[in-house]
Design a protein that fits this description.
Shape: globular
Strand order of the largest sheet: 2-1-3-4-5-10
Number of strands: 13
Distance between the termini: 48 Å
Radius of gyration: 19 Å
Bound molecules: guanosine-5'-diphosphate-beta-L-fucopyranose
Length: 318
């Protein structure tokens, strides 16, 4: 186990239609490897027999496990069974099939919401399982914690080079812009765009605006994942973030400035705030030699440009 050279390798990106998977496919285009993907119509990752048959047929050398049922705070809170069942099944099936077919290296992508609700900030990797989870996303968190543990268990028992990374809140091209299931950043872009277009006096922001969040542009995440895949091997998971965070109020103000909406912000405190803060400690990643190149402002501008160019095709577009 050790460094993983992707040259001439067949690399499976599970979840290539999602925001993260599609960014990984874009990033891998500049590596000298063969990227393989499977459409949802031909492979349902929640079905063990389908996953095992597909993996046996395609025999990838490396796997990025970026497939997951994901969503924002409301989707997590209202669809607990899907978030738990889908994610447990996807992880278990892909990890076991990877072992059976001799995959040389696998990376599982988890999420910063696996950490305790009141973890000391910035959150180091060691904070895992040291306290209670945030209730709105505990179902997703439990599934992702199981995924990390799966990778560790397969390392210990079978010697598989399976690793996991913990991305912070992500945004970028191919994000989900449906206001009922999206994360905050795409939601604010849609709302600010619609508010400007309709000359609305105000824009509604969920919660108090006080929580703090860290945001990583998804192409930076993909670059970090490829970097970690190549140069890291170990039982401990690695945080991936920018190392800085903002309040939701500041984020909304920044989005409004970029979109050109000049009305006021109205906070809907009947909606949940979620965890007060989740800023990742990224010193382990920095020590390996990677840091995020894209500023929040640049990333939001690029996301907004992407949204404007693809508005006709995305769910929930205004
Ligand atoms: O991005 P978000 O949905 O997820 O919400 P979490 C972040 C913060 O933004 C919360 C506020 O305090 C929301 O109340 N917010 C303000 C909004 N306006 C809006 C809006 O219009 N839409 C949304 N969605 N939020 C998720 C977890 O937590 O983070 C997932 O539920 C996952 O499991 C993801 O881990 C990264 O950051 O609170």
């Amino acid at each position: 186990m050790g460094a993983c050279d992707l040259r001439s390798k067949r690399v499976f990106v599970a979840g290539h239609r999602g925001m993260v998977g599609s960014a990984l496919v874009r990033r891998l285009a500049s590596e000298d490897c063969e990227t393989v993907v499977a459409d949802r119509t031909e492979l349902d990752l929640r079905r063990q027999a389908e996953v095992e048959a597909w993996m046996a047929a395609f025999r990838p050398d490396a796997v990025f496990l970026a497939a997951a049922t994901v969503g924002g705070i409301l989707a997590n809170d209202t669809r607990p069974a899907e978030f738990l069942y889908d994610n447990l099944m996807i992880e278990t099936n892909v990890v076991e099939a990877a072992r059976r077919t001799g995959v040389g290296k696998l990376m599982l992508l988890a999420s910063s919401c696996i950490y305790p609700k009141f973890a000391p900030q910035p959150i180091t990797e060691d904070a895992l399982l040291t306290g209670e989870l945030e209730p709105t996303n505990q179902w997703y968190a439990i599934a992702k914690i199981a995924g990390i543990k799966l990778c560790q268990a397969y390392r210990r028992q079978y010697g598989c080079d399976f690793i996991s990374v913990m991305p912070t809140n992500l945004y970028g091209p191919n994000d989900n812009f449906d206001l009922t299931s999206s994360h905050v950043l795409p939601a604010l872009l849609v709302k600010a765009h619609a508010a400007r277009a309709h000359g609305a006096p105000a824009l509604e922001v969920w919660g108090t605006g006080v929580p703090r969040r860290e945001f990583l542009y998804v192409d930076d995440l993909a670059d970090a994942c490829v970097f970690v895949m190549k140069y890291y091997s170990g039982e401990g998971h690695i945080n991936i973030g920018t190392g800085t965070d903002v309040t939701i109020r500041k984020l909304a103000e920044l989005v409004c400035r970029i979109v050109g909406f000049e009305g006021e912000l109205r906070f809907d405190t009947t909606k949940p705030d979620g965890t007060p803060r989740k800023l990742l400690d990224v010193s382990r990643l920095a020590a390996l030699g990677w840091q995020a190149p894209t500023t929040l402002e640049d990333g939001i501008r690029r996301s907004y440009d992407w949204y404007l160019a693809h508005r006709g095709q995305v769910r929930g577009a205004a």
